[in-house]
Design goal:
Layout (H helix, E strand, L loop, with lengths): L2 E8 L4 H21 L6 E7 L2 E7 L8 E9 L4 H11 L8 E3 L6 E8 L4 H14 L11 E2 L2 E2 L8 E9 L6 E2 L3 E2 L2 E4 L1 E3 L8 E3 L3 H10 L6 H18 L3 E2 L3 H8 L6 E6 L9 H12 L2 E4 L6 E9 L8 H26 L3 H4 L7 E3 L3 E2 H19 L3 H10 L7 H5 L6 H9 L4 H9 L14 H20 L13 H14 L6 H10 L5 H4 L5 H16 L4 H8 L7 H16 L1 H24 L15 H22 L3 H9 L2 H10 L7 H18 L11
Parallel strand pairs: 9-12
Antiparallel strand pairs: 1-3, 1-9, 2-3, 4-6, 5-6, 7-8, 9-10, 11-12, 13-14, 15-17, 16-18, 17-18, 19-20
Helix pairs in contact: 1-3, 5-6, 7-8, 10-11, 10-15, 11-14, 11-15, 13-14, 14-15, 15-16, 15-17, 16-19, 19-20, 20-21, 21-24, 22-25, 22-26, 23-24, 23-25, 23-26
């Protein structure tokens, strides 16, 4: 079957837009093909700074013929209805229609045959529409063609369209269409400087090979691999080690079509600046990688750049140009850093009185005081020194007002640590200045120093409770204040540090520190715990825990000790993997199902203790005795937080439950006996709820 080659050749596409644009092109074209009945075998899209390309192989040469039936009016209907039916279906008379028998009457049916079109004609129709409606985040109109303003809106001026379609064994045809005066053809262009001449292409293999010969690597991943491998080899050859940076690698690969890796250097005096500031300076301004000494782990005065050309002088001029630009950038960074060191962190704090955190939550200064108070309360619970936790909370936000953080926001917190150490603060206090923001995502490191943990929890709880109290909760996909991330951060801090604390007590304490209207401050919004529960479910599911086990534990209610919830879910999961657990679950489910049916039938609950005098069978007595023992044993184990022992106690129910259902008829003819046996089933449900709500667990 034929293949499609499509290329849209333009001025430079911003690197950040390329990957999504390539994916959008693939999706839009293939969706349209499928909608037109042209089911393809495979498709792949590519992007370089100056082109989007797509190859779709295995497209049928022609659409399938379509046969559809269209129901018309009843026999004997008004002439207007008949004429409308004939016109809509293309029939010349009712003689060409069939008659369909129906209980409501006999109807005319038109059989409409729509012959399929050649795929190349379909492509000529859909491709211009896709190009004109392409979803660029930002686009522009430019120039004029034939004396008229251009009508196409594209990310950058579009210069050429390549579109061919045909079999591998034959000369492909050009898909004939035009967009804003640009005719589709077979001509593309190589590297802007090294091979700018026009290139005639036929199909994808030919196209990719000719581009490579013209100094263009089409595949973004291939460009990344070249840059990464060459950079590692170049640094290793000089006894250094590349500081890997996947985000920067993705960006740089979108800036070049023919990557050429080189190394430059800067004056060693700049190494007095913190490594992270050097890296941010060189990375943000020149899109270059930094290099470290593998022995010390510290940065060296080298950097790796990626050029887009094989220069005649071996790259000396390019390297010198980058060095010339980086030098003043590092000079500025050095000046900012040295200027910051002249002012103590706490001397910056009065400025926060003038900075509003949120109009309903007061100034940044007020927020810092709240975090200080909350950190002091949390400190004993996490084993932190109260004075150090308070001091760390006092200083943690101060670096937001420094010159370096103003220039490079990504180093906030980190610079607080450097400045705190420089002014002689305790190491734990300094570490908390950096770590109180952590964890900032599921892959981020969780602090373990107790002072950092106390301040991090205080910071996140203040954020959550504050925005919850003013009703700025996340809705749908919108979460402007990153409250989901804050809740997940609290969960990870508690879980990974094995902390025992009541979320709601801490949240209530955070609420007490807010200056809110009396009506707002009366109670904490009741759904905050549910929000934490949802975040914990997400976290546990990502770790492989079954969602139904999470629901089974949460269904018991009244739990805000997250660590205990996690341990209970773990114990329940292990129990249900055992044979006893699986069989007991089946028995409990059976008891719950019978109870549910009978409660619905009788419109009442079968609560209260069964009457032992009504036990007529040994299996009833044995089950009742087992329930009593297990209930006491499981409750005692849960009270000691020994959930494994609680599950072992539950396992003792399995034999008497199995025997009961094998020998005992629950719906006895004697109403009193029936009621008593249903109460006994309710006792099973009640006993097992000491550890979880088994009705929430899937078989």
């Amino acid at each position: 079957m034929p293949d499609l080659l499509l290329e849209l050749f333009s001025e430079e596409i911003p690197a950040r837009m390329q990957a999504k644009a390539a994916d959008d092109l693939r999706r839009m074209v293939t969706d349209k093909l499928v909608a037109e009945g042209l089911v393809y075998e495979g498709a792949k899209a590519f992007a370089t700074p100056r082109r989007l390309a797509l190859t779709v192989h295995g497209i049928p040469a022609r659409q399938p013929d379509l046969k559809t039936e269209r129901r018309g009016p009843k026999i004997g209907a008004a002439d207007a209805a008949v004429q409308g039916f004939l016109k809509a279906t293309g029939l010349t008379s009712l003689d060409e229609a069939k008659i369909q028998r129906d209980p409501k009457g006999d109807f005319y049916i038109a059989l409409i045959e729509k012959p399929g079109r050649d795929a190349i004609d379909v492509l000529a129709e859909i491709l211009p529409v896709i190009i004109r409606t392409f979803p660029w985040p930002k686009s522009m109109r430019w120039g004029a063609r034939s004396g008229k303003p251009g009508s196409l809106s594209w990310v950058r001026p579009l210069h050429a369209i390549t579109a061919t379609f045909g079999l591998e064994t034959e000369e492909p045809d050009v898909v004939k269409f035009s967009v804003d005066g640009i005719e589709a053809g077979q001509t593309t262009y190589g590297h802007r400087f090294m091979a700018p001449s026009a290139i005639s292409v036929r199909r994808f293999e030919d196209y990719e090979a000719k581009l490579k010969a013209a100094k263009v690597i089409l595949d973004p991943q291939a460009r990344k691999d070249i840059i990464f491998a060459d950079a590692k080899e170049l640094t290793f050859a000089q006894g250094f080690e590349l500081v890997e940076d996947q985000v920067l690698l993705d960006e740089v690969s979108g800036l070049v079509e023919w990557p050429v890796v080189m190394m430059g250097s800067f004056e060693a005096e700049y190494l007095a600046i913190p490594d992270e500031v050097i890296r941010a300076t060189i990375r943000n301004n020149q899109k270059c990688f930094v290099v470290k000494d593998p022995k010390t782990g510290k940065l060296t005065n080298k950097f790796v750049l990626t050029a887009n050309i094989e220069a005649p002088d071996g790259g000396k001029t390019i390297v010198a140009g980058n060095e010339r630009v980086i030098r003043p950038r590092l000079t500025d960074a050095k000046f900012f850093y040295e200027t910051d060191l002249k002012t103590k962190l706490e001397d910056r704090l009065p400025k926060f009185e003038q900075i509003v955190f949120h109009e309903k939550l007061g100034t940044q200064a007020a927020r810092i005081k709240r975090i200080e108070r909350l950190a002091a309360e949390i400190a004993p619970l996490v084993g932190a020194d109260v004075a150090k936790a308070t001091r760390a909370a006092h200083l943690a936000k101060a670096d937001l007002l420094t010159e370096v953080v103003g220039e490079f926001p990504e180093v906030q917190g980190l610079m607080g640590k450097y400045y705190a150490l420089a002014q002689g603060e305790d190491a734990s206090v300094a570490a908390a200045c950096e770590e109180h923001y952590k964890p900032q995502g599921p892959a981020d490191r969780v602090p373990t120093d107790p002072v950092s943990v106390a301040v991090a929890l205080a910071d996140k709880l203040d954020t959550l409770v504050g925005f919850w109290a003013i009703d700025e909760k996340p809705t749908g996909s919108k979460d402007p204040y990153a409250l989901r991330r804050a809740a997940l951060g609290v969960i990870r801090l508690i879980g990974e540090n094995a902390l025992r604390m009541s979320i709601m007590k801490m949240a209530a304490s955070a609420l007490a520190g807010l200056s809110l209207k009396p009506a707002d401050a009366q109670k904490l919004p009741s759904d905050l715990l549910a929000f934490f529960a949802d975040r914990l479910k997400v976290q546990l599911r990502e770790q492989g825990a079954r969602h139904d086990l999470v629901d089974a534990v949460f269904a018991l209610g009244g739990q805000d000790d997250l660590l205990m919830i996690v341990r209970r879910v773990e114990a329940l999961g292990k129990f249900l993997e055992s044979e006893d657990g699986k069989n007991l679950l089946a028995g409990i489910k059976r008891a719950s199902n019978i109870l549910g049916i009978e409660e619905k039938k009788d419109k009442r609950a079968f609560e209260g203790a069964p009457d032992a005098a009504l036990y007529g069978l040994d299996e009833e007595k044995a089950l009742a005795n087992a329930i009593g023992e297990v209930k006491a044993e499981a409750s005692a184990a849960v009270a000691k937080e020994d959930f494994a022992a609680a599950m072992s106690a539950m396992a003792k129910l399995r034999p008497p439950v199995d025997a009961f259902f094998e020998k005992v008829r629950v719906n006895d003819e004697d109403a009193k006996v029936r009621e008593n046996r249903l109460k006994l089933l309710n006792e099973i449900r009640s006993a097992t709820r000491a550890v979880a709500d088994f009705s929430k667990i899937q078989d």
